[in-house]
Specification:
The complex is a heterodimer.
Chain A (H helix, E strand, L loop, with lengths): L3 E4 L2 E4 L5 E7 L5 E8 L3 E8 L6 E2 L6 E5 L5 E5 L8 E8 L7 E2 L3 E5 L1
Parallel strand pairs in A: 2-11
Antiparallel strand pairs in A: 1-3, 3-8, 4-5, 4-9, 5-6, 7-8, 9-10, 9-11
Chain B lengths: L3 E3 L4 E4 L4 E7 L4 E9 L5 E7 L4 E3 L2 E6 L4 E6 L8 E9 L6 E2 L3 E6 L1
Parallel strand pairs in B: 2-11
Antiparallel strand pairs in B: 1-3, 3-8, 4-5, 4-9, 6-7, 7-8, 9-10, 9-11
The chains are: A mainly beta, B mainly beta.
Amino acid sequence: NAGVTQTPKFQVLKTGQSMTLQCAQDMNHNSMYWYRQDPGMGLRLIYYSASEGTTDKGEVPNGYNVSRLNKREFSLRLESAAPSQTSVYFCASSEWQGSMEYFGPGTRLTVL
Amino acid sequence: RKEVEQDPGPFNVPEGATVAFNCTYSNSASQSFFWYRQDCRKEPKLLMSVYSSGNEDGRFTAQLNRASQYISLLIRDSKLSDSATYLCVVRQTGANNLFFGTGTRLTVIP
């Protein structure tokens, strides 16, 4: 079991570029989440997917879109990156909404 | 007001010491509580759930005080490997996700 995997591990973008962060889990979990973590701010929820076929906004959704491709995969897209999106992005999954979450290793994104 | 508040520390303690962290939460309807551990430049990992009656896992003890809306984590006989940031996590009734505190940093010194 790999648990939750994320790609890429590191990325540098220029302002205005787009990219997609990939996330997959092999635990047959129903719910998946995208967070960003900034110094002094803690983990903030961007989007979540309670179950396959559904997605909802979290606390800080502006500038992002998501796709729940299937039960295993949940991607996060930045259409036009901004320096304020420089952060560490974590994907997580849980058996159901609100149960304990398991995190991927994170993607360190820098937007210049 | 933040949903979950923690003292950021840092707490610097010698090996073998006992250390305790507290965390307060704002919503009295919160119903699930966890402690996560996050090592430097790594992902958060579940340390333990917190039950109403309190629970213990080896050197770690978690307590919940619903009346005062705080949870605590006690670490006995600290090891160097306990050095990490400890995140307090709360789920509110009817909420779709967990709320994370900003974490308390612990360094255990030889």
